[in-house]
Amino acid sequence: MKNIIKITLVSACIGLGLSSCQRDLTSLNDDPKHPSVLPSENLLATALYQSSYYMDNPSVNFNGYRFFTQQWAETQYPDETQYNLVTRNQPRNHFNRMYVYSLNNLRQAKTNLGKEVETDDIRTNKLATLEIEEIFIWENLVDTYGDIPYSETFKPDEILTPKYDDAKTIYLDLIKRINDVVASIKPSAPGYNDLVYGGDMNKWKKFANSIKLRLGMNLADVDPTLSKTTVESAIAGGIISSDAEAYKFKYDGNTFLNPVYDNLVASGRNDFLPSELAVNTMKGLSDPRMDVWFTKVGGVYKGGVFGEINDPYTNFSQLSSYFRTATNASNLLSYAEVAFLKAEAAARGYSAGGAAATLYADAVTASMTENGVSTANATAYVAANPYNAANWKQSIGVQAWIALFNRGFASWNFTRRLDSPTLVNPPKSNLSSVPYRMPYSDQEYVLNGANVNAAASKIGGDKATTKLFWDKF
User: Is 19 domain-assigned?
Assistant: First the structure.
């Protein structure tokens, strides 16, 4: 309840901007029971909630990750599976949620923390928590859009129209920031009583190194030397090594609801289905996770055709109650994902703590365990679907794509990097290929036109089909 109150205190201020919010609170200055400046812990709570909810949100009005990976299909309104990214302003909505609702709160939290009374070690850990969470959001932005406003952001007194920084330059800076913040952590001291790790700084440290691992793997095809050193350094520094260490934002099921539940149950939407590609791929592998994830229709699993107006919702398999619970956590950097990243690292010849085949089996088993599949069934599945060294991109890519079902952003990184499974552009697509990035916010062309136009020209056009710098093949 204490953490819920933290978020509730600032929820009314979201969208108004922190400066507006602070002006509205000036009437409280003479009341010793109310703060005139929002505590940094409240601002962190808001940023954690906003970033987690909207990174994981399946709404057609936001990120669209589950459609980019073709794991979900639609029945009545196929615009999103036909890659219409304009009508509902998804690029604008995700951009604003990450910058205004998430990063802005973290930047203000850093400022406010400097005014709060703390011991040196606790202050250091709190600052580290804010920094790691900020890096996590920057990673989402740069891997969603490519070049983005970065170095000149959040300087309203100096710069109203921030430039778009080169995406690889941002990557290099994020890696440096991770190295610096990890070195600063005081493991024996607490941090915030936060909504993800509850102030456990060892877990925050492993999370930071796991972000570094993900950044490093994305560099594999464009800068293999830097990729190798980054990945090996992350693994050596300690990464997420169990489901208990995964980055999960937990919802209370009352005031705050899991975004899948919110959109499929609370909103009464009966038009999202597991796709035919997802269902048929898993059926072909005799995947026991189908029994956990999907319902049957007529005694069989039947997925919806991607990019088409499908028959009535009840004619298809549906997402089971496993995904439809209000209290499900948003598992945004899971143990299974980290395990697959290690397997890929080993397949590329990096020192990853084991052979590729062993790490692949560990990753598949981690996903099975996360989803309640028995050890016997997991062992049988690995034996029936072993690691294929001769075609490791397909072997790891398909299994990671399955394991990360309903974790759209994480899955999208794998499909872009490994090009497996093969995603076919639907016949009625609005694009010339499947999406490789999110176009820039339309508001940027009004408010920051010169810089966004320069960025669009630099990357080869502000199109969803323009590949990111690291997506070479």
Answer: no
At residue 418, the 3 state secondary structure works out as helix
**Does a structural domain hold residue 277?**
no
| Cα angle: 242, vertex 245, 248; to 5 degrees | 120
pLDDT per position in the chain (473 positions), as tens? 334 333 333 333 433 344 334 444 444 444 555 566 899 999 999 999 999 999 999 999 999 999 999 999 999 889 999 999 988 999 999 999 999 999 999 999 999 999 999 999 999 999 999 999 999 999 999 999 999 999 999 998 999 999 999 999 999 999 999 999 999 999 999 999 999 999 999 999 999 999 999 999 999 999 999 999 999 999 999 999 999 999 999 999 998 999 999 999 999 889 899 999 999 999 999 999 999 999 999 999 999 999 999 999 999 999 999 999 999 999 999 999 999 999 999 999 999 999 999 999 999 999 999 999 999 999 999 999 999 999 999 999 999 999 999 999 999 999 999 999 999 999 999 999 999 999 999 999 999 999 999 999 999 999 999 999 999 99
148-149 vs 72-74, strand pairing mode: unpaired
Residue 303 has which token pair? Answer: 């997925």
> CATH no. for residue 441?
1.25.40.390
For the chain, the helix, strand and coil percentages under 3-state DSSP, each to the nearest 5: 50, 5, 45
The residues that bridge with 274 in the sheet, in sequence order, are: 72
Could you tell me the two tokens for 329?
């956590």
Classify strands 148-149 and 164-165 as parallel, antiparallel or unpaired.
antiparallel
Half-sphere exposure of 91 (CA within 13 A, CB side): 23
Helix (H, G, I), strand (E, B) or coil at 249: strand
Contact at 8 Å (CB) between 167 and 148? yes
End-to-end CA distance of the chain: 48
pTM comes to 0.93
Per DSSP, 426 falls in state P
φ/ψ of residue 196, rounded to 5: -115, -60
User: Could you give the CA distance from residue 144 to residue 410 in angstroms, rounded to a whole number?
Assistant: 11
The boundaries of the domain holding residue 126 are 118-250+436-468
Q: Alpha-carbon distance 91 to 98, whole Å?
A: 11
Q: How far apart are CA 327 and CA 249, in angstroms?
A: 10
CA distance 229 to 350: 9
Of residues 417, 415, 419, 416, the one with CA closest to residue 405: 415
Residue 196 within a domain: yes
149: Cβ–Cβ under 8 A, 6 or more apart, which residues?
A: 99, 162, 163, 164, 165, 448, 451
Taking the C-alpha atoms of residue 286 and residue 280, their distance in angstroms, rounded to an integer, is 10
Number of domains present in the structure of the chain: 1
303 domain residue, yes or no: no
